[in-house]
Amino acid sequence: MRILLTGGGTAGSVSPLLSIYSRLKQIDSGFKESDFLWLGTRKGPEAKMVAEYGIKFKPILAGKMRRYFDLRNFLDIFRFWLGFWQSFLIILKYKPDIIMSAGSFVSVPVVWAGWFLGRKCYIHQQDIRPGLANKLMAPFARKITVTFEESMRHFSKKKTVWTGNPVREEILSGYKESGRKRFGFEKGVPVLLVTCGGTGSVVVNRVVVEALSELTKFCQVIHITVGKMENAPRHGSGQGKWKMENNKRYHPVEFLDVGGMADAYAVADLVVSRGGLSSLTELSALAKPTIFIPLGNTHQEDNVKYVLAKKAGEVIWEKDLSVDKLTKLCKDILFDDKRRGVLSLNLSKIMPRGGAEKITKITGG
Q1: Architecture of the 3-162 domain
Q2: Is residue 133 over pLDDT 80?
C-alpha cells in the first residue's frame, strides 16, 4: 500500500502523521520507505522533521485562505491552484492508495486533487475548534478522526470517529539522566523547558530572555527558540543570536531532533508551552506540569480553556504576559510538589490514549 502524507507550515499538523507513520511501520515490517511520500510547504519545519524518519519529501506551493480582507489573498489564490495542479500531477505519477492529513492549508489542494482522482482521503482534527483547512477538506474525506469528543458535532456523524490524538512513541523514550548530560545541567536544581511549537514565538522568547536573570537564580532553562529572537536583548557575540555568557543554567537551542526533544521532556520539571494540540498531546502523554501561553484569538485559546476546565494546567494569557508574572508562576509551581503532582495527574487524563493505533485501523493499517 502506498501512502501520501500531507501537512506543514507548522509542526502541529506534522507530528500526528509521523506517529501514524511509525505505527504503520511497527505493525507491518514489509513497508518500505518508497511506500510513503510527504507533500508540504517550502519554508515550514516539516522538511526537517520528515527527514529524521527517512520519508521522501516534496514541497508544493501553498496559499493561505484568510477569513478577512488581505491583499495577499489574491496572490494566494494563484498559489493554491498551482499547488492543486502540482498535487494532481504528483498523485497521478505516485499512485497512492490513501492520502492522510492532519490539517494545514498545504493539504487542501492535495486532498481535493486526490478526491478528484478517486483516492481514499482521511483527515484528522486535532483542535477542539476545526480550522478552515479541515472544513474545506471534510466533504472529500472518507473518514474524519477527532481528538476531542466535542469536536464530532462539527462534522458528519456518519464518517467521524473519536480516536484521541496520535503521539510519537519516540518522544516518550527520553531519560532524565541523559537529558541532564545532554544539556550540561547540575543535579538538584529544577529544570524549566520553554518550547513554543514548530514556528516559535517572538513574544514569548523576548519575555523569557528578559526574565533569565531571575529564572536562573532558582532553575535551569532549556529554551527552544526556533530562531525567533528578534528584538530580544542580546549579549555576547553573534549576529541575531542571544547568549548568556558564563551561565551554565541557560541552554538556548534553535531546534531539537526527536531524540533531543525526548530528553528535554524527560529532564524538565516544568514546561512553558503554547496551546497547540501536538505539544499538548505529548505533554499529556508524559504528564508534564505545564504553563500555557496560547496565541491570542486562535484555536490555541480554546484548547487551553478546555485544559483549565479540567484543572490540568496553568495559563498566562498572551495579553497579560510579563517578566514578573512568568517568573513568579514558574517559581511557585517548581517549589510546590503537591501542585505539580495535581497538574501532572490531571493533564494525563484529558484525552484518550492509543490515537495512532485507532487511526491506523480505520485507514486499513
Answers
A1: 3-Layer(aba) Sandwich (3.40)
A2: yes
